Amino acid sequence: MVKCLKPGGALIYITCSVFRKENEEVVAYLENELGLQMQQGGVIKGYDRAADTMFAARLVKV
């Protein structure tokens, strides 16, 4: 999928997980191995609104 991105193209990575292995570690892999750079992202807390907590990151191809 990353091969299809043009330089400057964006990839949105989102999970319904709070586990570091499924979130921050995947983003680190995408950055270190596939040439993406996270612009913004992190945990979206939902527990204070009786909703799921999620993780989202916007990465761009450099």
Give an overview of the whole structure.
The protein has 62 residues and is an alpha+beta fold. The chain is 18% helix and 37% strand. It has one helix at residues 24-34, and strands spanning 10-15, 36-44, 54-61. The chain has a 3-stranded antiparallel β-sheet with strand order 1-3-2, with helices on one face. It is elongated, with a radius of gyration of 13 Å. It starts with 9 loop residues before the first strand and ends with a strand. The mean pLDDT is 95.
Spell out the blueprint of helices and strands.
Layout: E1 10-15, H1 24-34, E2 36-44, E3 54-61
Antiparallel strand pairs: 1-3, 2-3
Our count of helices gives 1
What form results from the Cα inertia axes?
elongated
- Biggest sheet, spatial arrangement of strands: 1-3-2
Q: What percent of residues are in strands?
A: 35-45%
- Class by helix and strand content? alpha+beta
The number of distinct β-strands equals 3
Q: How widely separated are the two ends? A: 15 Å
The whole-number mean of residue pLDDT values reads: 95
Residue stretches low in confidence (pLDDT < 50, at least 5 long) are none
Q: What's the gyration radius in Å?
A: 13 Å
Binned, the helix content reads 10-25%
Sheet with most strands: 3 strands, antiparallel
Element order: H for helix, E for strand? EHEE
Number of domains: 1
How would you summarize what this structure contains?
With 62 residues, the protein is α+β, with helices and mostly antiparallel strands. 18% of the residues lie in helices and 37% in strands. A 3-stranded antiparallel sheet has the order 1-3-2, with helices on one face.
